[in-house]
Structures are given as C-alpha cells and as structure tokens.
Amino acid sequence: MKHIIKIVIAFSVLMAIQLKSQTPISLENAYEKAFKNNLNLKNGKLQIDYQEKIKKSYAVVEPLHVSGEIGQFASAYTDNKFSVSQTLRLPGFYNSQKQVLIEEWKSSVLNLDLQKWQLKREIALIYNELNYQNEKQKLLLKADSIYTNYYKRAELRLKKGESNILEKTTAENYRSQAEIQLANLKKDRETTLLQFNYLLNDETFYTNENSDFYQLSFINQDVKYAGNPVILKKLEQQKSIELAKLKAEKSKLLPTFSIGYNNSSMFGTGADDQFYNRSARFHSGMIGVGIPLFNGAQKSLIEGQKINQLIAENNYEVGSRNLKNQYSSLFSEYEKLKNETDYYKTKGLQNAETIFKTANRLYYEGEINYLEWSILTNQSLDIQNKNIDTQKMLNEKIIQLNNLTEE
Hints:
The protein has helices at about 1-20, 25-35, 40-55, 90-160, 165-200, 230-250, 295-365, 370-405, and strands spanning about 25, 65-70, 80-90, 205-210, 255-265, 270, 275, 280-290. It is α+β, with helices and mostly antiparallel strands.
C-alpha cells in the first residue's frame, strides 16, 4: 500500500512539474507533432508494413509430398519404392489471392489517412477548448476583480455604518463564486492539457498559443456537398476488397493438377524373363487432375461472399448519405450560431459594457442600491459569458465542417 502511495505521489509531482513547464505550440505544429508521434498512427503505419510483408504470401504452394514403401510388390521378394508428388493450382487461383492482399494493403494505407483525418479533428477541438478556457479565465478574473473591489467597498461601508451586513455578505458570496469557478477552470484546463499532450505524445509538454479565439472561419462552403473524400475512399476500398474475396472464393473451384515421380526396385525375374538384382531401379511418372465434384460447401461460401459484397456496397451508400446529413445538420447549426455571435459582436457586447458602466455610475451616485447594482453587473457579465460560450460552439461547428470538406 505504501508503495502505491509513493507511485501516486511521484506521478502527481511529475504532472505538476509538467503543467508548470508548458511550451506554447501552434495548431499546425501540433498536427505535425501528432502525425509524427501519435501512438495510434504508429500502429496504423505498422499495419501498412504488415500488409506489405505478406503481399507475397499468395504464392504459397502446397507441400511437396515424399513417400516411401517397402514390401512384396510384384513377387515374394521384398522390394522398396519411393515417390515424389506435387499439387499445383492454375495461375488464376494465385492471381485472385494476390489481388485480395493488394486490396487489403490499399485499405491499410487509406485507414492511416482516415486515422490522421480523425486525429486532426480531435486536436483542433481540444485546441479550441484550450482557447475557450483562456477566454473564460479572462472573464472570471475580470469578475473576481469587480467583486473583490465591491467587497472592499461593502466592508468599508459597513464599518462606517453606511450599509448593513447583508451587503457585505452578498459581496463576499459573489467573490467566492468567482474564486470557485476559477479553481474549477484550472482543474478542467489541466485535464484538457493532459488530453492534448497524450495525442501529441512528445517529450515536451505543450500548451496552446494565444491565437485569436474569435477569428476561426468556415473555409470550404459547398452547397452540393457529396461527402468527405477520405471516408468515401475507405468505403469504396472495402467494396474492392469484398469483390476480390469473391473472385478468390470462385477460384477455389478451379481444378488442381498433380505431377509425380516413382522409383522402385524389383528383385527377381521380370515380365521380360530377365533376372534383376537389387541394384536395378525402375521409374514411372504420374500426372493427375483434381476436379472439385463435391463443391457444395465452397459454393455456399461464394454465396455468402456475394452478400458481403452487397453489404459493402450498402455501407458505401449509407456512409455517403450520413456524411451529407451530417454536413447539412452542422451547417444549419453553424448558421444559427453565426447569427448569434454576430449579434454579440455588433450589439451584445456594447450593451454589456453600457450596462456595467451605467450601473457603476448610478451606484456611486447613490441612485441605485447594491442589490440593483449586482443584478445589472451580473447581467453584463452574463452577456459576455454567453458570447464566449456561443463562440466556442460556433468554432466546434466550423472545425467539424472544415474537417468534413477537406481532403
């Protein structure tokens, strides 16, 4: 138990050191690091290497059959015999097996592209989350500063007898809420940074650069969206694999050919009335054809593979329609969020600033009380908070839309 506690403490210390020594990195450089070091991508590259190595396995030939016999073959005398035979298939069989391996290798290459595509989206979303947390931190620090000053004034007013304990308690509660939210945000950011660096898988511990959270744009708007090329190529390749497998199963119905060689002794008098001693050897050759007469089982596999081919074709159609529906849905949400963020940029934030300044002026002039001031201040901060939250959601839709439309 003590050993486990030591490990946990050591891990916590290590994480604390890493979180303190953060190196800023741009989003594009984060992509490069992840493409180079990400563990899932390394597995994808190894899968390509594996498929490359087994490409030549299509040329597997059945084992050479060697046999020996000893006994009374042609007379009461004991003779010996050895035979060598080899079964071969037609070139069509080997070509069909080769094509399956080639198509599976192509699939592994496309699968790596798909993994990169998915990883890029995941990194972009996490990077946006880090930018969002930066903006939230700025707002919470602003709120903390406002309520700290408010608390100091309320405390001073209470000492002078100009207010009651309720004003001071209210101010203290607002300040405490801001401090709690800042502490929670710090913990959330630590978790997000760990997720970010797990994807990058580098010795250096990275954080996001101070990029513009409000300037992300939708690059490739497409009214006739047909689907993401990376996903569609992967689905198309699965159709090619199933077709190659179908041809490979059919090729198993092709006849096989056998060739053989026999070498035997014959001690005694042969059919030609000559006497042969044990050193005399006699030869013969053999050629045969294997015809798959009982092929019901193989035909059932062929029929099953035809269904797999239909499934692959159907999966392509389903995948294509899902992509189009996903694009339409995301674009609709994007338009709604874009309108909302445009409102905040043109009117909402200005209104929030006006509300806050006016509330402060009226409060200092004694025209409103602390309760009215706090309501107006919270309203101003709430508008700014909604602007940040809406921008985060808009950025997420933009990232997903850009991801769906890029090569």
